């Protein structure tokens, strides 16, 4: 979870603006944040919509934070400076940004990637045959669950977009005939995929994602714009950061926090994919994403914001040890 989501969840629980609307679909604004953040009750976890036993547990977790030494955040200052400052200075929390962690060992990773036989990854060979920024990568993490009807909508949406794609399908049934019809344009991967390597490939033009924080940072670190499809956890907060604050992505139109997903139509998928892949808007998003990538790499270099914050944390811990 990044600073934006930490601040949003803190203000949601403190001000409870969701209690001031008349329906689950009526928008409300999260108060006192640096940007205007609009949500609906449908986009909140069940324990944030109304009081439950889980609500009490979450409150206890939040209270325990006040007795902790602080919070280590896998983010970097330049990605969300307003929210890093807000979390520390307005909410009064102690925190250190030390990310993106995946970039901290980049040199060793590159050596490993070069040593891996390219033939082990069919998708990378396939991407090598494609033009720059021409392929959209579709993957929703290991925890997402789709109904068969939703998988069919994804297939129809991708096909209608007429874009080349890689689609990672963990489980579920692909519509009959889809792979045959799209074999010239698409590649389906069943199970695990080398996501960091895929996102780093020059052929990737955008990423359809569930907005999990790790996937978000991997895309940001690769300079790849996103199509946001949040489902649960803090993912609807992450969508707001991507689309409204950073402006490096477009929303597919998911409206409900849900463990099992069955609420996005193929037309919405097609529209979002085309927006992020074709035209002037997509070029501007890609330009901004590349700028964020540069900032991410600088953050973990010697003297960078994350490098310095990690050293500051080490220094504080050493000081505590000396006085024990």
Automatic annotation (TrEMBL):
The record's listing under InterPro entries reads:
UDP_glucos_trans (IPR002213), UDP_glycos_trans_CS (IPR035595)
Pfam entry (one):
UDPGT
Kindly state which keywords UniProt assigns to this record, in alphabetical order.
Glycosyltransferase, Transferase
Gene Ontology molecular function = UDP-glycosyltransferase activity
Q: Which domain of life is it from?
A: Eukaryota
Chain coiled-coil ranges = none
The keyword Glycosyltransferase is assigned to this record: yes
Q: Which CDD domains match?
A: GT1_Gtf-like
Name the protein family: Belongs to the UDP-glycosyltransferase family.
What name goes with this protein?
Phenylpropanoid:glucosyltransferase 1
Origin species: Solanum tuberosum
């Amino acid at each position: 979870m990044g600073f934006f989501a930490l601040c949003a969840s803190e203000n949601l629980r403190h001000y409870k603006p969701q209690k001031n609307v008349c329906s689950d679909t009526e928008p409300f604004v999260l108060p006192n944040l640096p940007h205007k953040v609009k949500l609906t009750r449908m986009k909140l976890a069940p324990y944030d919509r109304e009081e439950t036993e889980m609500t009490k547990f979450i409150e206890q977790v939040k209270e325990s934070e006040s007795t902790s030494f602080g919070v280590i955040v896998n983010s970097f200052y330049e990605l969300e400076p307003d929210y890093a400052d807000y979390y520390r200075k307005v909410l009064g929390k102690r925190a250190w940004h030390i990310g993106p962690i995946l970039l901290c060992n980049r040199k060793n990773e590159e050596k490993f990637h070069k040593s891996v036989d390219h033939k082990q990854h069919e998708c990378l060979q396939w991407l090598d045959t494609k033009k720059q920024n021409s392929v959209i990568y579709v993957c929703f993490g290991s925890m997402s669950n789709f109904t068969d009807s939703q998988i069919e909508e994804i297939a129809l949406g991708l096909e209608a977009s007429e874009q080349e794609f890689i689609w990672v399908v963990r489980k579920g049934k692909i519509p009959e005939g889809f792979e045959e019809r799209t074999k010239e344009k698409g590649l389906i991967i069943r199970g695990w995929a080398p996501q960091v390597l895929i996102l780093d490939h020059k052929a990737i033009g955008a990423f359809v994602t569930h907005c999990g924080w790790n996937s978000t940072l991997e895309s940001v670190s690769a300079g790849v714009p996103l199509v946001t499809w949040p489902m649960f956890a803090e993912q609807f907060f992450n969508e707001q950061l991507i689309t409204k604050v950073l402006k490096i992505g477009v929303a597919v139109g998911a409206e409900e926090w849900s463990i099992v997903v069955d609420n996005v139509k193929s037309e919405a998928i097609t529209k979002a994919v085309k927006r992020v892949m074709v035209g002037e808007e997509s070029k501007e998003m890609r330009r901004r994403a590349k700028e964020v990538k540069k900032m991410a790499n600088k953050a973990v270099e010697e003297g960078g914001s994350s490098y310095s914050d990690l050293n500051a944390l080490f220094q504080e811990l050493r000081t505590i040890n000396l006085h024990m």
